[in-house]
């Protein structure tokens, strides 16, 4: 039956294929705790197209953390390392309007 083979391929997506589409990269946040909000948010911009991220999830621990930044245009995520001062800044004074969500690292 024509099309049967295509359907079977669609119903069994390859895990490697999915991961390949979301190839992540790593970076280190470079803002200081006292920097302007624009600089803070710029740390989470997409490395490929430099657009603002669609979503930033910050996994905060006591002394450091990581931010997972997702670009809705490139469909890539960037993992950005954060130090304690940067976590504190994002907790106390997150950039206004930025899609940044802080969660305890244990919750991830
Ligand atoms: Zn992008």
Question: How would you describe the overall organization of this protein?
Answer:
This protein is of the alpha/beta class and 108 residues long. The protein has one domain. Helices cover 28% and strands 29% of the residues. It is built from 4 helices and 5 strands; from the N terminus they run ααβαβββαβ. It has a 5-stranded mixed beta sheet. Strand 3 and strand 4 (76-83) form a beta hairpin. It is globular and about 30 Å long. The N and C termini lie far apart (45 Å). Residues 6-21 have low confidence and may be disordered. Zinc ion is lined by residues 46, 48-49, 51, 71, 73-74.
Give keywords.
108 residues, alpha/beta, 5-stranded mixed β-sheet, 4 helices, 28% helix, globular, binds zinc ion
**Whole-number mean pLDDT:** 84
Number of helices: 4
Radius of gyration: 17 Å
Order of strands side by side in the largest beta sheet?
1-4-3-2-5
Largest sheet: 5 strands, mixed
The separation of the N and C termini measures 45 Å
Bound small molecules, by name, code or SMILES, are: zinc ion
Supply the number of structural domains.
Answer: 1
Q: Unreliable runs, pLDDT <50, ≥5 residues?
A: 6-21
| Helix fraction bin | 25-40%
Strand tally = 5
**H/E series:** HHEHEEEHE
What would you call the shape? globular
Strand content bin: 25-35%
Structural class, from secondary structure content?
alpha/beta
Quaternary organization: single chain
């Amino acid at each position: 039956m024509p099309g049967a083979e295509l359907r079977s391929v669609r119903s069994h997506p390859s895990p490697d294929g999915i991961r390949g589409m979301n190839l992540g990269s790593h970076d280190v946040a470079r803002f200081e705790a006292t920097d302007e909000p624009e600089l803070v948010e710029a740390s989470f911009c997409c490395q490929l197209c430099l657009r603002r991220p669609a979503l930033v999830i910050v996994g905060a621990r006591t002394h450091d953390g990581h931010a997972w930044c997702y670009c809705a245009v490139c469909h890539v995520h960037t993992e950005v390392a954060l130090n304690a001062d940067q976590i504190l800044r994002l907790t106390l004074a997150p950039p206004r309007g930025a899609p940044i969500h802080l969660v305890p690292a244990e919750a991830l």
